[in-house]
Amino acid sequence: MSPLLEIRNLRTYFRTTAGVYRAADGVDLSLDPGRTLCLVGESGSGKSVTALSVMRLVGVGGSIEPGSKILFGGRNLACASEAEMLKIRGHEIAMIFQEPSTSLDPVYTVGYQIAEAVRAQAKPGQKVTRKAALQRAAELMRLVGIAEPQQRACDYPHQMSGGMLQRVMIAIALAGNPRLLIADEPTTALDATIQAQILELLKELQVKFGMAILMITHNFGVVAEMADDVAVMYAGRVVERGSAASVFTAPQHPYTQALLRSVPVLGMTIEDLHAIPGSVPSPLGWPAGCRFAPRCQHAFERCRLEQPPLTAAGTQESACWLTIRSLDKAREVQH
Amino acid sequence: MTDIVLDAADLTAAPVARDRVLGRLWRHRSGRVGLVLLAVYLIVAVFGPLMVLWSPSSDVAYQNLFQALKGPSAQHLLGTDQLGRDEMVRLILGARYTLLIGVGAVALGLVVGVPLGAVSGFYRGWIDLVVQRIVDIVLAFPNFLLALALVAVLGPGLRNVIIAVSLASFPRFVRLVRASVLSVRERPFAEAARAVGVSRAGVLWRYVVPNCMAPVFVQVPLEVGSAILTAAGLGFLGLGVQQPTPEWGAMLGQAQNYIFSQSYLVTFPGLCILGAILAFNLLGDGLRDVFDPRVRAVVRRPKRQAT
Amino acid sequence: MLVYVGKRLLIAVPTLLGVATVSFLLMRLIPGDPAQVMLGPTATAQEIARFRVQLGLDKPLWYQYVHYLGVLAQGNLGSSATTGRPVIDEIAARAPYTIELAVFALLLAVLVGCGLGLAAALRRDSLTDMALSGFSVAGVSMPVYWLGLLLVLVFAVKLRLLPAAGAATPQSFILPVVTLSLFTMGFISRQTRSALIEVLDQDFIRNLRAKGLRRRSVIGRHALRNASLPILTVIGLQFSQMIGGAVLTETVFAWPGLGQLLVNSINARDYVTVQGITFVLAVTVVMVNIVIDILYAYLDPRIRYD
């Protein structure tokens, strides 16, 4: 089965007065239809920029560098025209965002905004009347679990809670029946109980509509709940990827290992807390060689000189010279 | 939108000390122009009268009707006015009045407005209500109209113009300072000062107010520009500084009578007024950007890239 | 919504009262004897005495104040010291000219100003933006009386295309309106630009594009609607500014409106008329601001449904 979305060597740079900000610098991802890929990483790792690059909504000042490939539906989205992207956004790929309270236009009702999405997703030539669009909006609201959709449709965003607003966002995303849903930390700004509800909803809808989900998160609980596959990002690159099961049980990359170790567990004491020493370097000046090397316990000479490529290691891939070194050794032994 | 907002760690920015504001203002496009213009005006206002002592027109009572209404020539670079006085000399002399009125009116507005706003925002209660009402009522009148009415009843002249014009700026300062004080008084350091035994008044004047002055400083040049505009308007109507003292607005008002024949009399005083107001407005804009806490370092590319 | 309107009107009452009080005090600020000042040096002692009684200046201050408020509520602004006619009649005769001038100038300023601001916001940091910036700064720095004179110089004196003064022909309308509108145009274009930029930076704008809307719809249907709120506030403030500008514009162009009457009255020391016009203009500004506040509340659902 060929992947629904394949990202190869995505580089998104921002040219600023302080230098070139390499937010995404060589991202490799692959997502199969109907599956959920969780993109994990700290702030500043480039996760959101990657998602926005897929939608080509990076914002003024940022540009996707030539040589980047975002393969979807037989096209390279990185160099698609705006007209082509208009057909993709909402219809084939939809996106929901982190902060529900600022996600909607405050001067229009939620019903209007969902209906607007419905009408925007109509096939060319097909006229959707206002009434029909509002009907469909009410249906979508029911689908995402909003009670009394007819009444709720007349509410304004400021009258709704965070959880409800996120459901509205999901309804909007579903209006065009997309094949891929990108969710950029959709539950981070919500209360814990609401978080669980929203994640449940997403899983339900995924099964019902056969959507693939690319979920961005920094929360391993969410990953555990949602992911079929995982990709770990650090300093603008993917450093490890594979199925969620294998990455969780046998992480290959030192960064992944350190991340998993640093997640606090009930019952731990303060001595047990593992922080990763040092801090993330600035996207204005990535270090030469492996970007995690300055903070890595196992770093050796080669790590500081060359950037390791993503290499297959068992069922997953890892960008680490250790992995490559042990693979080489294993191959030597075989001969 | 994903604009990159760089923090201090990304830029090699030095800490903002008071003397650096001037430097940053200089680097700001319009701030620089404003500073240069202002410098020119200041030099003319201060040294101008000394530089034109050689000309008989430097005496305000001078008249020479034989030389009246002559166009620009080698002898009188900008021509002469209806009483035969050298226009350029009078313009140079007029600089100090314009600046004096502008700065004086705003200074008065500050002296009245800042304490009122501070007290109003800090102590709240009935004094706040009263001050707020007064400010609302003063602001209900169109700025120029109020100044005009005041000068009309009080009589023309330098002192009355300054009072009338300052009435427009003090409410704005009251509101600015009050808003700042309302938020600053909640900050921990204000509470801490009380805990150490500083009196309420001490907390207000020694701690809170100094931290509220930044938006006031930004507003000052804009207010001076506005004051000059109003004052020159009053002069234009003949209600400002009285003849024969040279004041740009009044000169412009007189020039209206000769617009069909001696159009140069209209051009130059107006240009001087425009320049002065422009200088202060640009300065104000520059200061506002310099004090803006968000440093946006994204360069927008003119051509659309593959975004 | 009705509650908001009610509250807003209620708040206006003390303000209107304050405006009336200030108008009342204006007369009392006149140095010396107001009656004598108004009648001039040629008046006899009897005329002055009679006028004093007519003005009510012989009564105690509080009585004068209450009396003033009373007649004001009946729409009586006194009689002109120069013509003797009721001030309210003089104002009614000239008001249409000033209203005409102000309304059209405001319309022009809003239409052109918003258009320029929109263009600048969409082409941020380009040459167009910088040119527009320069134009706005020049616009708000330009004294309205000088602009008027310059336009007269160019169009009436040199080119002889338009009349220099008066309200005789339809063309005499053009220069005064353009002159009066420029300051507000500059101001509104700056405010439109920054309001739009602020709106365009918000999250929901990006989200609207993510759901497949074209830029045009996003800007037209959403950005402008959101930006119209702060712009509306600015328009309210600018109306006040424009009234002051109208006084000067009418002087430059000899436009027969309230501004010209005001200046003439000041020169003639007719303080009754001065007081009357000041009051009427201030009340107009207060009313317009109330209307704008209500309009704002209507447009912003966050205020409407509180």
Task: Describe the structure concisely for a colleague.
The complex is a heterotrimer of chains A (335), B (307) and C (306). With 307 residues, chain B is mostly helical.
Task: Report the total helices of chain A.
Answer: 12
Please tell me the CATH architecture of the largest domain in chain A by its name: 3-Layer(aba) Sandwich
Largest β-sheet summary of chain B: none
The SS-based structural class of chain B is mainly alpha
Instruction: Work out the helicity level of chain A.
Output: 25-40%
pLDDT average of chain A, as an integer?
88
Number of strands of chain B: 0
Total count of strands of chain A: 13
Low-confidence spans of chain B: 1-18, 295-307
Tell me the fraction of residues in β-strands of chain A, as a range: 15-25%
CATH topology of the domain at 31-48 and 85-175 and 214-297 in chain B: MetI-like fold
Shape of chain B: elongated
**Proportion in helices of chain B:** 55-70%
> What's the domain count of chain A?
2
Helix-strand pattern of chain A, N to C?
EEEHEEEHEHHHHEHEHEEHHHEEH
Sheet with the most strands: spatial strand order of chain A: 7-8-9-3-10-11-13-12
User: Helix/strand/pairing class of chain A, anyone?
Assistant: alpha/beta
Identify the CATH architecture of the domain at 31-48 and 85-175 and 214-297 in chain B. Orthogonal Bundle
The greatest interface here is:
B-C, 52 and 55 residues
Instruction: Determine the number of helices of chain B (DSSP H or I, runs of at least 4 residues).
Output: 11
CATH topology of the largest domain in chain A: Rossmann fold
Task: Report what the structure shows.
With 335 residues, chain A is an alpha/beta fold. Chain A folds into two domains: 5-92 and 185-334, P-loop containing nucleotide triphosphate hydrolases (Rossmann fold, 3-Layer(aba) Sandwich), CATH 3.40.50.300; 100-177, no CATH class. Chain A has helices at residues 47-55, 82-88, 110-120, 130-143, 149-152, 162-174, 192-209, 220-226, 244-249, 254-262, 301-305, 321-334; strands at 5-16, 19-31, 36-40, 62-64, 69-72, 75-76, 93-96, 180-184, 212-217, 229-234, 237-243, 311-313, 316-318. In chain A, helix 3 packs across helix 4, helix 3 (110-120) packs parallel to helix 6 and helix 4 packs across helix 6 (162-174). Chain B is an all-alpha fold. Chain B is 66% helix and 0% strand. In chain B, helix 3 runs parallel beside helix 6. The two termini of chain B are 12 Å apart. Chain C is 78% helix and 0% strand. Chain C has 13 helices and no strands. The chains are: A alpha/beta (335), B mainly alpha (307), C mainly alpha (306).
